[in-house]
Protein 1
Amino acid sequence: MKRVGFVLAALLALAGGQAEAQTVSYAQAAGLLAQHCGDDIMKLCRGLNLGNGAIHACLAQNAGHLSPACAANHEGIRQMTEARAAAQKEVYKVCDRDRAQYCPGLVPGDGNIVSCLLEASKVVSGACTASLVNAGYTQQ
């Protein structure tokens, strides 16, 4: 039940539109889903491929049959993974000025921008730092 409070706090952060919304990696989401919904997934979604939203669709389709922990958490976990994916796309916009200043010569698509920004983490803007954290590239 401790995690219910964690997920609810994360959803409040997402709903409030804060700059630092709670995000989780796919590995963390899988762990949270296993913790809160493992038995439900085994019972209701057995044999489904884990990718392409099939687990979420199965849980949503069987909403009336979910355990209380799974019912309270599965949507929040999905939202946090979507927030992480959105944050990863947003990094390049938020950090563009920092990239130009601290990583001259690097252009989007060359794969080195995030590494350069992380190396310059002590001097990049607060917005860029927050964006890198939300994207899961670094921790505060």
Note: The mean pLDDT is 82.
Protein 2
Amino acid sequence: MRAAQITSYGAPDVLRINEVDRPAPGAGEVLVAVEASSVNGHDVIVRAGELKMVSGRRFPIGAGLDFAGVVVGTGADVEGYQAGDRVWGMVHPRQRHTTAGAAEYVVVAADRIAPAPADLSPVDAASLVVTGATALIALRDSVHLAAGERVLVRGAAGGVGTAAVQLAHALGGHVTALARDRHARLLTDLGADEVLDHGSTTSDRIGPFDVIVDTVGSELHCYRGRLAKGGRMVTVGLSATALAAIAASSVYGSRRIRTFSANPGTAVLSDLAGHVTSGALRPVVHGVYPLADIAAAHEAFERGGVVGKHVVAVSA
């Protein structure tokens, strides 16, 4: 099979499409024929070598955290799935893989997939796995957004941001989106009650907010100061600077800056599918690339300034 692999740590050109043996599922595992994967921040920092403690120094390393595809085989002790089932899921982000989601086939534990929403194409489904799950966990499980609360989504035009705007609206929040002004119409259509241009809006001129969802990872202490009494803030934009700000904020108790590692299993993916089926969440795809051009997809991700996701069409 063809698989995208990281051959050394560095820029996108370290990615190669290699011919490798197709994996076989073991006990409790499922073999999926991958139709699409997407580019996530996790994929980029692994490729750049920023997670060497997890990914190690042995190459090649599999590229692609998420996937959408079709079950083609199951190992022993797997119930509920059979060949032909359309599923979505992700490999474990804290384990090393020689092949991962950006490959023609992937083997994963059965508790890391769920039935994909029937009305989504593989490309659309892949665009929502990590971003949708991250936004759902942030809003529902980390900050416990309640109906009627004022929500700021920072970095609202990105993959997680567009999902967070939609889910915050669906959960009853009054949503303010902070993004580039040219994305205002789309974000309003996704459910934002107000869109602020991040180029001309400083943190001291907005708020207060009951909930802040940050996808950027900078100036966290400034935005934390815009929380109302009893407010909560969560960031998914992690860096060394962000981690320092998170640690320093612990003195603020419930108004500290929270974070988490999105690692959804079947339950979260099934809940996410429910939001898609209900119409509360829809995909936002900026560009689609064939597997052979995955390096270009990484380059586009790193340039930024887009709305939605970059998706790799594996089966194209």
Note: Residues 2-120+283-313 form a domain with the Quinone Oxidoreductase; Chain A, domain 1 fold (CATH 3.90.180.10).
Protein 3
Amino acid sequence: MTTARDYSEGIDPERALKYAIQHHVGDRTEIVEGVITHVTPSWDHERAAKLVRRQIEARVDDLGCVEGSGNLDLPGSSNWYIPDIAVVPEELAHHGGALLPDQTLLVVEITSRSDAETDRVVKRKRYAEYGAPLYLLVDRQERSVTLYAEPGSLGYTTADGPHPFGTPVRLPEPFGIDLDTSAL
């Protein structure tokens, strides 16, 4: 006779949780430090994302990349993120699965009241730990923008900001553009 224990042996809890999230129907869903979080952006949040996308769009195209909000897996952890914007090479966007933070050129998170501390602290640390080269934090509650660079296992080693909304923020190469933050 087969028991529940027989089925549970050999099951990887991280893999099972991430499988469930990937096959979840409905709202965008993330796993943040093992907690399942439903992502339901407000209209003002989506507006801020649109303003950033419009400014980087031409350069993203020139680089042969795609910007979007696809899944990012953080293997070996109980994290599965859906960034507000991620820029990835076009060829990686074709495989259909989750990508890794180190496969991005830029990750952008835009805070909401419900997740501001997660974006400011947890995601900043995890994106650095998993090698996302640039992390742009648009903090709507603090009305500021900070660009983090030079990721490492203990976090980002450089931070440009926080800059108050209205201050241009330079996105370094390969972007080489100034982000207008006045309308955020």
Note: Residues 41-70+81-179 form a domain with the tt1808, chain A fold (CATH 3.90.1570.10).
Protein 4
Amino acid sequence: MYTPPAFEEARPERLRDLIRGYPLATLVTAGPGGLTANLVPFVLAETEGGDVLRAHMARANDQVASLREAAEALVIFQGPQAYITPSWYETKKVHGRVVPTWNYVVVQVWGKPQLIAEPDWLMAQIDHLTRNQEAGRSEPWAVTDAPESYIASQLHAIVGLEIPVARIEGKWKVSQNQPEPNRQGVIRGLREAAAEDMAAVVADSVRGV
């Protein structure tokens, strides 16, 4: 991933927070038929041996064959993103030498995929993913709310996926290369455009968070 020094983010907790906050990722593999990509929700587990990504997918998915043979998979987690208009820059009024850009936050993870078929593992993964997403709801749904026979039939249709994190990179392209007046203009503009998620990230970078 092309990452100029100003945009590099390597703090482990920051990267983990992005993965947990935006768990639906693009899973990319290469196989005999070329590159394949699918959107898959992941759970990040911190283990004694290191961080591990866990997920499940349909057995009928063509990517399963690629995963079975792949020496490496790439998982891309996309955080907040927003178009940045030059009209928000204070320097536009001074010299006009400004152009549009795009702000975004992304984490890329590489590792060797492992397919898992054990029902107990699959049940635990589904339960973990469900509890993560249902947390905070007034009436959270649980896997055990569904009939046991129905859940058992669903488990037969999926396969588990585990990817130990071998390499991880983060990129926070959030106007760090702009002078302070321009960054403040970006924050105001994003808030007016109801892009509060990106506005908050830019504000954090201004404060050095």
Note: Helices lie at 12-21, 63-69, 91-94, 119-134, 148-155, 180-192, 196-206.
